Amino acid sequence: MDNKFSHFYQRSEDQRRAIIADAAHLDETELQLLKYRAETGDAKALIENYVTAYQLPEGVAVNLTLNGRTVVVPMVTEEPSVIAAASNGAKLASDAGGVTATVESRLLMGQIVLQNVSVFASVDDWVALHRQQLLDVAAAAHPSLIARGGGPRRLRVRNLGDGFVSIDLFVDVQAAMGANMMNTMLEAVAGVVQSQLHPNTLFSILSNAADQSLATATVSIPVNHLATSQMAGKTVADRISAASQVAQLDPYRAVTHNKGIMNGVDAVVLAMGNDWRAIESAAHAYAVTNGQYRGLSQWQVTDDQLVGTLTLPLPVGTAGGATRVLPVAQVNQRMAQISDVSQLMAIVVAVGLVQNLAALKALVTTGIQQGHMKMQLRSLAMSVGAETPAEISAVTTSLTGKKDPSEAAAKRALQEFRM
Ligand code: NDP
């Protein structure tokens, strides 16, 4: 390793940027950009080796009626069209009475994995016998959670094969995502297991599967609300239902179907200062619950209604982690008027559902590119240097209708406008 990076974490921000600029041959403008952005950055101490603040745009999805309440939804994303589509889908849903969302369960699971276990029953029986002692040890490891009404709820033992056994702990983590709280409790319990039962514990950590933390959104839309200038509403509804069926049959399609759902989900989760990798991993694991990767949502036509359902594992938090450290995440919670974690789960799953509705409707009617292209052209204009609204508009107007709008054509259009 290059010596310049030795003790990098102990350097000042300026020194770190200077070392990087030197190593990567950044010019003065690039270096100044890092410095300028760093000064506006929040919560620098959240991470290690801080050098700058990377910005993503935040917008809001509007028109969402959820459980009878109008919700403005903050979304952070770099992808054009996502927020427009979420607002479109939300409007379709709201015109039909809105989305209903419920939280079915909210427990986090963690595991203590033992290795070289020769007789599974010896662990299973011991845990059954010492169940209350182990739950008490877990509770004592994070007493403030008990004071809040949460805490460890139950234990389970699973034989993983090849001498590995998992002791699973289920915890009510209240308003937090709970990863750190869970890991603290698991390590305390593992200490007892190691000293009293089995010397060979391999690791203790939460499971990100989060299948005990589920929320479901449903919406029912009269098919005539879906009519376009080219297609009858019933036809659109039948085609949305058929597209959803394809995502149940074909994993190749299911991945794209679910990516569209996660466009909305991740954007809200990110805006709320939550761990979106946890949500992503949980969602994709849930999509393969029955042995085949499938679409997470389903759409069916019954009695002239298009009925959509989406269930997601949502280990989100309104307390803990970065939620209280990132100032804008706090404002975003207030913007969406979130007063408890179940409301956040409901909003996230509802946005996933309306995002999916808008995407499927576009896909089976005009095709996905028509709506996308307008926003993609804006991105293309900005990527070649268009800055003002007038420049962006001139470049996009010039590129609209071109079969294959290229970067070179965008540059030319910008130059012509500036002449
Ligand atoms: P914290 O470690 O921040 O713990 C939760 C905190 O929230 C506690 O300090 C708790 O206070 C406080 N709190 C305040 N109000 C409440 C409430 N109503 N209910 C519950 N807690 C409350 O966060 P988590 O344990 O939630 O862990 C989340 C973080 O862990 C995320 O940043 C995540 O990225 C990270 N992580 C994720 C892993 C994974 O997904 N595999 C692994 C390791 C970390 P008090 O102490 O008084 O109880």
Automatic annotation (TrEMBL):
Reactions performed catalytically: (R)-mevalonate + 2 NAD(+) + CoA = (3S)-3-hydroxy-3-methylglutaryl-CoA + 2 NADH + 2 H(+)
SUPFAM superfamilies in alphabetical order: NAD-binding domain of HMG-CoA reductase (SSF55035), Substrate-binding domain of HMG-CoA reductase (SSF56542)
PROSITE patterns (UniProt xref): HMG_COA_REDUCTASE_4 (PS50065)
Example of a GO MF term: hydroxymethylglutaryl-CoA reductase (NADH) activity
Protein's UniProt keywords contain Signal: no
Keywords: NAD, Oxidoreductase
CDD domains, A to Z: HMG-CoA_reductase_classII (cd00644)
InterPro entries linked: HMG_CoA_Rdtase, HMG_CoA_Rdtase_bac-typ, HMG_CoA_Rdtase_cat_sf, HMG_CoA_Rdtase_NAD(P)-bd_sf, HMG_CoA_Rdtase_sub-bd_dom_sf
EC main group: oxidoreductase
Domain of life: Bacteria
Record's keyword annotation contains NAD: yes
Functional pathway: Metabolic intermediate metabolism; (R)-mevalonate degradation; (S)-3-hydroxy-3-methylglutaryl-CoA from (R)-mevalonate: step 1/1
GO biological process, one term: coenzyme A metabolic process
Pfam families with a match to the protein in the record: HMG-CoA_red (PF00368)
EC number(s) stated in the UniProt entry for this protein: 1.1.1.88
Family statement drawn from the similarity comment of this UniProt entry: Belongs to the HMG-CoA reductase family.
Name of the protein this chain belongs to: 3-hydroxy-3-methylglutaryl coenzyme A reductase
Organism listed in the record: Secundilactobacillus kimchicus JCM 15530
The organism's taxonomic lineage, starting at the top: Bacteria, Bacillati, Bacillota, Bacilli, Lactobacillales
